[in-house]
């Protein structure tokens, strides 16, 4: 993973043609794709996962399955991303030993440090700014808290939540190793161009 940092991670939205969206993101420079469809069946997720992993291979990108450790195991995904309410990280690590990547969501310093102790390979931290892509129960973390987290962790921190080409530079200046987005690419008039703009922001 480290050789691809800094990176843009595209998380598939709940609606639309996710394969087409992923292709646009990869063409625009995204180096991580996370398959996320909360209400899809296991069969659908597996089928999409096989296709997306092949695409990621072609673009030298990382393919991550959201939540579903079983899907990641079944098709030998590059990794899995788990949340605070999912399978405990230490259990996921036993099922998916290195070099399989495990990312863990965190919204506090304590959660981020716990993820590091338990064997995560990276932390997805946020939401940084207001976002409509996911329902949130807490207020935005902001770049000040992000800066504190990145200064405490040895792991790469990928920031998420309300990130766009307008604020991505501030996020990276706060120590993030990358950014994760949904609507900034999927809802753009030109998704590939939007991905290119984001990629340019993180590499300046």
TrEMBL record:
Cofactor binding comment, as recorded: Binds 1 Mg(2+) ion per subunit.
InterPro entries: Aldolase_TIM, ThiamineP_synth_sf, ThiamineP_synth_TenI, TMP_synthase
Catalytic activity: 2-(2-carboxy-4-methylthiazol-5-yl)ethyl phosphate + 4-amino-2-methyl-5-(diphosphooxymethyl)pyrimidine + 2 H(+) = thiamine phosphate + CO2 + diphosphate; 4-methyl-5-(2-phosphooxyethyl)-thiazole + 4-amino-2-methyl-5-(diphosphooxymethyl)pyrimidine + H(+) = thiamine phosphate + diphosphate; 2-[(2R,5Z)-2-carboxy-4-methylthiazol-5(2H)-ylidene]ethyl phosphate + 4-amino-2-methyl-5-(diphosphooxymethyl)pyrimidine + 2 H(+) = thiamine phosphate + CO2 + diphosphate
Pathway(s): Cofactor biosynthesis; thiamine diphosphate biosynthesis; thiamine phosphate from 4-amino-2-methyl-5-diphosphomethylpyrimidine and 4-methyl-5-(2-phosphoethyl)-thiazole: step 1/1
HAMAP family, sorted: TMP_synthase
Residues in Thiamine phosphate synthase/TenI domain copies: 9-185
Known function: Condenses 4-methyl-5-(beta-hydroxyethyl)thiazole monophosphate (THZ-P) and 2-methyl-4-amino-5-hydroxymethyl pyrimidine pyrophosphate (HMP-PP) to form thiamine monophosphate (TMP).
Source species: Prosthecochloris aestuarii
Molecular-function annotations in GO: magnesium ion binding; thiamine-phosphate diphosphorylase activity
Entry-linked Pfam families: TMP-TENI (PF02581)
Amino acids binding Mg(2+): 67, 86
Keyword set includes Endoplasmic reticulum: no
BP-aspect Gene Ontology terms: thiamine biosynthetic process; thiamine diphosphate biosynthetic process
Protein name: Thiamine-phosphate synthase
Binding site for 4-amino-2-methyl-5-(diphosphooxymethyl)pyrimidine: 34-38, 66, 105, 134
Binding-site list for 2-[(2R,5Z)-2-carboxy-4-methylthiazol-5(2H)-ylidene]ethyl phosphate: 131-133, 162, 182-183
GO cellular component, one term: cytoplasm
CDD domains attached to this UniProt entry: TMP_TenI
EC number: 2.5.1.3
Key word Transferase present: yes
Name of the encoding gene: thiE
Gene3D superfamilies membership: Aldolase class I (3.20.20.70)
Cofactor(s) annotated in UniProt: Mg(2+)
Keywords on record: Magnesium, Metal-binding, Thiamine biosynthesis, Transferase
């Amino acid at each position: 993973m480290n050789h691809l940092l800094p990176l843009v991670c595209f998380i598939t939205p709940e609606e639309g043609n996710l394969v087409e969206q992923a292709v646009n993101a990869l063409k625009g420079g995204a180096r991580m794709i996370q398959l996320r469809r909360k209400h899809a069946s296991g069969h659908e997720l597996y089928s999409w996962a096989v296709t997306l992993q092949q695409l990621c291979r072609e673009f030298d990108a990382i393919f991550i399955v959201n939540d579903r450790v079983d899907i990641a195991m079944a098709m030998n995904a590059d990794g899995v991303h788990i949340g605070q309410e999912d399978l405990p990280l230490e259990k996921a690590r036993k099922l998916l030993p290195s070099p399989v990547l495990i990312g863990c969501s965190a919204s506090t310093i304590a959660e981020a440090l716990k993820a590091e102790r338990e064997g995560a390979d990276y932390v997805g931290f946020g939401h940084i700014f207001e976002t409509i892509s996911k329902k949130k129960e807490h207020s935005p973390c902001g770049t000040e808290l992000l800066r504190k987290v990145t200064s405490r962790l040895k792991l790469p921190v990928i920031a998420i939540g309300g990130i766009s080409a307008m604020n991505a530079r501030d996020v990276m200046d706060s120590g993030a190793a990358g950014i994760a987005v949904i609507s900034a690419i999927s809802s753009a008039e030109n998704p590939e161009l939007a991905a290119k703009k984001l990629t340019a922001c993180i590499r300046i």
